[in-house]
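User: I'm new to structure prediction. If I give you an amino acid sequence, what do you actually give back? Let's try with this one:
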Amino acid sequence: MTATRDAAISPFVAWAKARLSPNMSKALEDYSAGFQRHVLWTSLAWFEIKVKYRRSVLGPFWITLSTAIAIATIGPIYARLMGSSMDDYFAYLATSIVLWNFLSAAINDNCSSFIAAEGMLKDVKLPLLLFILKDLYRNIILLLHNSVILLILMYFFTFIVNIPLFLLCFVIVVLNLFWVGVVLAIICTRFRDVGQIITSLVQVAFFLTPVMWKPSMLGAGGRHLVVDLNPFYYLIDLFRSPLLTGSVDIGHLLICTASAILGNAFAFWFFSKKRARVAYWL
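Assistant: Good question. You get back a string of structure tokens that encode the predicted 3D arrangement of the chain. For your 282 residues, that looks like this:
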């Protein structure tokens, strides 16, 4: 199967390389090699999870348990503070926190994708993209673990799930996280302080994003600069709506789709410009 995929990709890569600049040709080669070595980055992702929880009984389900405890503790209190019914607010809060944990962890981890792989990159010639994909895949695995919380809550609270729409939105969100990860991994390798800044900004964004509160609570139809100019809002709402209402705001879908297309185009260009310097910055 791998041989078939390589045979399908290689002619396209060869055709594209003949028409691109040397920097972009190298970047395309790195992209191609990174995706082709899917067995390696998926195995590395699983290995890192196993090592982290090697002597743990629950393994990564400790993250699931801690998330569940946080939701169970916060839910009843904030439902009363927000003046919402338990059924409506608890489903909203649980979905929001599970998805926010995935978004924030993916962004923070990609800030150190190349830095954490310094030893491997200096000893073995590997495509840089492999480490972006590895970190993103690891967080998808952890998201699947935390999804157990939502599956349990579906028996007690109201969820209107549209699985095909959710899968479409999931792909769009992952594509956005991918290009953000590529850009941040390069910048944070060059400027080490940026990683700490990003971590702090993500923490602040948690309170500015409708995770524990709803846009409608702001009044004026939920329209406010803290919502309208917040990229996290569009991503998490695109992620969340198919699970809660079975539908999605078309405007949010178009914004996130455009962001995925334009962002990945920019990330590829940026990667082609800075790729050769990453090894010197490590």
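You can read the tokens as a compact description of the fold. Here is one thing that stands out. Residues 1-8 have pLDDT under 50 and may be disordered.
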